[in-house]
Each structure stands twice: as C-alpha cells, then as structure tokens.
Specification:
This is Glucosamine-6-phosphate deaminase. The chain is α/β, with parallel strands linked by helices and about 250 residues long. Helix content is about 35%, strand content about 15%. The protein has helices at about 10-30, 45-60, 85-90, 115-130, 165-170, 170-175, 190-195, 210-215, 240-245; strands spanning about 5, 35-40, 65-70, 70-75, 105, 135, 160, 185, 200-205, 235-240. The strands form 2 sheets. Strands 1-10-9-6-2-3-5 form a 7-stranded parallel beta sheet, with helices on both faces. Strands 4-8-7 form a 3-stranded antiparallel beta sheet. Helix 1 packs across helix 2 (about 45-60). The structure holds fructose -6-phosphate.
C-alpha cells in the first residue's frame, strides 16, 4: 500500500484538499459532475476547512459536485448534535455553494424494515453517477473503514451494521456516555468503497499508530477490515509522522 507521511496533519490536509479541488475543476472543464465520497470524524476536518477556504478565497465552486457520505448512526435524527448530517453541514456544506439536493447521507430515521431497500437504492444512486471519483476515509481503532467493523466481508455493500464496543467507547464523549451511543449504523460496504476510482485514507496522531501498522503491514483479514485496502490499486494512506511511528 502506498503510504505518504507528512510532518503534520495540516500539511497533509492541504494536499488532500488540493487533490479534491483538482478533480472538481477537471470535471467542471469537461461539463461533468464530480462525485465525492466523504467521511466524518476528526480526520477530515482540516481538509474540509481548506475546501471552504478555496471556495471563499479562490472561487472554487461545488455546483457540479455530488457527495455520498460513508455512514450515519442508526437510529438518529438529522438535527441531533451527533448526527453526521449535522456534522457535514457544520464542517462543510453550510459554507460552500453545493446544492443540498446533491448531498447524500445514509438516513438514520428510517424504519428498520425500510433499511435494506434504502441501502440498495444508495448503491444504485452512486452507480447512476458513474461511481465515486475520490473516497475519503478515516480509520477507527478497531480497523474499521466507514463503519465496517471486524468481521465485515470484502464484497459487502451498504447495510445496517452493529457498532463494535471500542467504537462506541471512542464515540462516548460525543454522546455524553457510551450508553447513549447508538448500537447500530448504516454504512457503505467494503465493496462500495473499493469501487471508488481513488481512495485516500487519512490518519493523524500517535493513537492511530498501532492500527496503521496493522492496516499497512498486517495479514489481510476480516479481523482488521482496513487490511482489505492492501488489495486495492487505487488507495493511498496519507498519514502524519505520529501515526507512522510503528511502521517498519
Ligand atoms: C466516519 C467513519 C469512521 C471514521 C473513523 C475515524 O464517517 O466512517 O470510519 O473515519 O472512526 O474517526 P476519527 O477521524 O474521528 O478518528
């Protein structure tokens, strides 16, 4: 797996934002739509800040951009403080000129019986735009990408999943206690992620060093879903020095 190590997450995030902006502008020049796969969490925040800056100061337009987010808690209301709809609005969408009709995030308000159909439609919608041009990923300490927790199959699609206990513990401060963290989520699958033409996994901070080592150098196994990325020709790990310290 190609790994690019930066001194700081800020420098790395500027580069990732530049790559995304280049794709958007290329598509614009061709009169086409750019399809972005987006992640929430701490890891992409500085990328989104730079995209906002590029919009405000360098007139980067998102009018031709369609987005698909990786995941959403289930159940959750879009207006609740921890929802990924709220996160994406606050961190990105409210500050750029994207048409909100072009924004797609798994729906945390569905009735359970309607989830399977929703997930199939999500996959079809991605395909209808010709697939994802660039997919951003973070990595959880369980090795999850999206919310594909240990045990996820390499060909999995968008679906309802159960969150790992460690993932819920890591989210507990956002929810004011682990007991308030939803036990489930709707996530794109490993197979969905693999169809993206470019995949960028970002990890910052020494807290991610051991899982980065496993993801990059470990045996490919459902026990650490991020190891599946070793089988992709389109992935790059973009990490900071601190997250790289365990790599050999
Ligand atoms: C978020 C997502 C998760 C996070 C991962 C890392 O949409 O899919 O896989 O990317 O849990 O989270 P942070 O970046 O907060 O460390």
């Amino acid at each position: 797996v190609p790994v690019k190590i930066y001194d700081t997450d800020s420098e790395a995030s500027l580069d990732v934002a530049k790559r995304i902006a280049t794709i958007i502008k290329q598509k614009q020049a061709e009169g086409k739509t750019a399809v972005l796969g987006l992640a929430t969490g701490v890891s992409p925040i500085k990328v989104y800040q730079e995209l906002i800056r590029l919009h405000k100061e360098e007139s980067l337009s998102f009018k031709n951009v369609v987005t698909f987010n990786l995941d959403e808690y289930y159940p959750i209301q879009p207006g609740s403080a921890q929802s990924y709809v709220r996160f994406m609005k606050e961190q990105l969408f409210d500050h750029i000129d994207i048409d909100m009709a072009n924004v797609n995030i798994p729906d945390g308000t569905l009735e359970e019986k309607d989830i399977a159909a929703f997930c199939l439609a999500y996959e079809k919608k991605i395909n209808s735009y010709g697939g994802i041009d660039v997919q951003l990923l973070g990595i959880g300490r369980t090795g999850h990408i999206g919310f594909n927790e240990p045990g996820s199959a390499p060909n999995s699609g968008t679906r309802l999943v159960t969150l790992n206990d460690l993932t819920r513990r890591d989210a507990s401060k956002d929810f004011g206690g682990k007991e308030n963290v939803p036990t489930k989520a709707i996530t794109m699958g490993i197979g969905t992620i693999f169809k993206a033409r470019e995949i960028i996994l970002m990890a910052w901070n020494g807290k991610k060093a051991s899982i980065i080592k496993k993801a990059v150098e470990g045996v490919i196994s459902p026990d650490v879903p991020a190891t599946y990325l070793q089988n992709s020709d389109n992935v790059e790990f973009v990490i900071d020095r601190d997250a790289s310290v365990d790599l050999t």
